[in-house]
Amino acid sequence: MTGTFTTPGPIHSVTTSQRSTARRLTVGGVLAGPLFLAAGLAQGLTRDGFDLTRNAISQLALGGAGWVQTLSFVFTGALLVAGAAGLRRTLHRGPAGRWAPALVGVFGLSFWAAAAFPADAGAGFPEGSPDATVMSGHGAAHMVAGMIGYVALCAAFVVLARPLAARGLQGWAVASRVVPVAVLAGFMGSAASVLAFTAGAGLGLLWLSAVMARLADAPGDH
């Protein structure tokens, strides 16, 4: 009697390679938020006339050193798009595997739009600017891009709650349904204080980093 024997080596190698690629791409999504916020904080503390209690981080793209923040928008967008690709490979299939990466990708693209359409001057920044902000076409486009991006991010959190729960991470799943409320509350409170907006935006970025890192480490294929 004869038979054909095969070894699982190549299949195992392909699977390992796919997981390695997914992890490398996901690192982009993990690093995007902390790097963006660190760059914004560093500039906010060193740029003349900038006040974190009065000015939004987006306004750092204005003035002579504005190119630094513009590059930060572009780089962060690239990291988020890479992270979305890694998330697709991590989740593989199902509704979450389709929708969550797409929504995170939209969030990433919104950073590129923010770079292309800078925010308006106002609240005394850049130095010499009036306190009142006069809405321009590019300023309106910047605002709309940010709104679309963060709504997509909040939707991604809700979608990601299911794979988190499926991996036994019930606390993470609950938090992913609660964080969007806090993020949107920060946006709604921006009329009273720019710090509320900054806090809401920062929370969204940091929670995305945490969730992507946790999903990359948690076993399961859901």
UniProtKB/TrEMBL annotation:
The keyword Membrane applies. InterPro entries: DUF998 (IPR009339). It comes from the Bacteria. This is DUF998 domain-containing protein. The keyword Chaperone does not apply. Keywords: Membrane, Transmembrane, Transmembrane helix. Pfam families: DUF998 (PF06197). The chain crosses the membrane at residues 25-46, 66-87, 99-119, 139-160, 181-208.
